[in-house]
Amino acid sequence: MTLAINPAALAEAAAGPTRYRMLIDGAFVDGAEGREGSRVSPGHGVEVSRYAFGTRVDVDRAVAAARRAFDTGPWPRLKAAERSAVLLRAADIIDRRREEIARLDVIESGKPISQALGEIAGAADIWRYAAALCRTLHGESYANLGDDMLGVVLREPIGVVALITPWNFPFLIIAQKLPFALAAGCTAVVKPSEMTSASTVVLGEILMEAGLPNGAVNILLGTGPDVGAHMTAHPGVDMVSFTGSTRVGQATMQAAAPTLKKVAIELGGKNAQVVFRDADLEAAVDAAVFGAFFNAGECCNAGSRVILQEGLEAEFLAAFEVRARNVVVGDPLDPRTKVGAIITPDHLRQIHAAVASAEAAGARLFADGRGIGASAGQYMGPTVIAGVKPEMPVARDEIFGPVLSVLSFRTAEEAAQLLNGTDYGLSAGVWSRDIDTCMNLARAARTGTVWVNTFMDGYPELPFGGAKQSGLGRELGKAAVEDYTETKTIQFHAGPRTGWWATPATVD
Ligand code: NAD
């Protein structure tokens, strides 16, 4: 099968490339060493963006600007109400520019436009939520330490934060970090993925228009080795928040260690949906299709494993096939599309190789989406691998493509073992009409999130993050802003203080 990519949309996407520059100290600038990058649209195969890429020199300039903005600038010193007003204005401008931002994420990442529009609206909602938290952030006081002592615990902004994001949700993931850091009073140096930087540059424009002081947010463009690595090691940075692959997450911790920076990391997942025989099968099948193929499976939360109670497989797969057949794969700019393009030709080859090795290991290919060609860009359809055994790589490794592995279990204990049988621990789903079954498995799951009779819903109010090798720390939720703070204990003493010399000596 060959997809005919819509020529009108292709022409629109090709009406570029647009050039993007870095934001340093309130000005949009080229890199000091004149490096350039470019992006070919995964959905259309045409160059859509060119970027001014930075190097260590630009990292030093951006960190110095953020440092100045933190140490002597107005941002950390504003009243919470004033900071909140800037974040709320930013949210309004995001809403106003929603279609433009969504389109940039679509042409650079290959995700479907209908989904991207939802992500940008969701991002604006998170900015508003962070604006509210700004005003409720507070410390503690202790009046129970004796009449002559008052203990006060301040929550102060941690300082300059480095925020590094991946390509799969360019505008949404920065919304899970930056507004919370700003709400706390921090200043920031941000680096989006070198493949999907456009919408983050637009965010820089939005923040300047919203009234953010110069240097409070700086946006660097460029590769991980040239820019990201230097950000994570930089002595002028107080905290790093990173979302991306396990390999780079580990490198981030190592780079941050010599200066003992605080590190928050969000990594991958091999998330399972466990379906019991008494589940609402129709709803579970729908969630399995959604979980596996949303964002073409290029999603840390993807439900890339379905674990079915013994005896369910035939019925489940039959219903699954009907639904999966109706999933529209195609041009990301077409509003009917549900599965868009794969991020790069190289990544597509890696997904194909993972499917081939699962077959070679003895698993059964129930649906094969590798046959999809396209007149432009790179695509892959829904792929289902049945008869997967827990020891196979396809049951344990993150594939990051539209590939679902189907396993089976006999008892609830075995289901929990399979669910927890990977190094990851990001999220899980449980499907059953029995409350005991749901509760027991939800409690047994070693994951940061468990969805019960639903999958991949998200709210700014609810913390998100991973257990085990899926990450450290949590984003979103009411504590998200606290993550960007440091506490300071102040002890106030009143009246005469008993001198050290006056304390009777004790002899053991
Ligand atoms: P990646 O790790 O290759 O890159 C992520 C970011 O890190 C990019 O901006 C990249 O330029 C930068 N980077 C690369 N090398 C670096 C280095 N040495 N030092 C500092 N920065 C460096 O990841 P990716 O391919 O962009 O994204 C896919 C991965 O992200 C998947 O594993 C996915 O599961 C994970 N992810 C996790 C979450 C989550 O919230 N848990 C969300 C989305 C994606």
**Secondary structure: helix percent:** 25-40%
Described by the principal axes of the CA atoms, the overall outline is globular
Poorly predicted segments: none
CATH-defined fold name of the largest domain: Aldehyde Dehydrogenase, Chain A, domain 1
Distance between the termini: 86 Å
CATH class bucket of the largest domain = Alpha Beta
Strand order of the largest sheet: 16-18-19-15-14-20-21
Q: Compounds present?
A: nicotinamide-adenine-dinucleotide
Largest sheet: 7 strands, mixed
What is the count of β-strands? 23
How large a portion of the residues is in β-strands, by DSSP E? 15-25%
The CATH superfamily of the largest domain appears as Aldehyde Dehydrogenase, Chain A, domain 1
User: What class would the helix/strand composition place it in?
Assistant: alpha/beta
The number of helices is 16
- Total number of domains: 2
What gyration radius follows from the Cα positions, in whole Å? 25 Å
Task: Name the CATH architecture of the largest domain.
Answer: 3-Layer(aba) Sandwich
Mean pLDDT: 96
Strands, helices and their partners?
Layout: E1 2-3, H1 7-14, E2 18-20, E3 22-24, E4 27-29, E5 35-40, E6 47-53, H2 56-71, H3 80-96, H4 98-109, H5 113-134, E7 140-142, E8 149-157, E9 160-164, H6 170-175, H7 178-184, E10 187-191, H8 198-210, E11 217-219, H9 224-233, E12 239-243, H10 246-256, E13 262-266, E14 272-275, H11 281-293, E15 305-309, H12 313-325, H13 345-360, E16 364-367, E17 373-374, E18 383-386, H14 393-396, E19 403-409, H15 412-419, E20 427-431, H16 435-444, E21 449-452, E22 471-472, E23 485-493
Parallel strand pairs: 1-17, 2-6, 9-10, 9-12, 10-11, 12-13, 14-15, 14-20, 15-19, 18-19, 20-21
Antiparallel strand pairs: 3-4, 5-6, 7-8, 8-23, 13-22, 16-18
Helix pairs in contact: 2-9, 3-5, 3-8, 4-5, 5-7, 9-10, 11-12
Bound molecules: nicotinamide-adenine-dinucleotide (NAD).
Nicotinamide-adenine-dinucleotide is lined by residues 164-169, 173, 191, 193-194, 223-225, 228-229, 232, 243-245, 248, 251-252, 266-268, 300, 398, 400, 426, 466, 471.
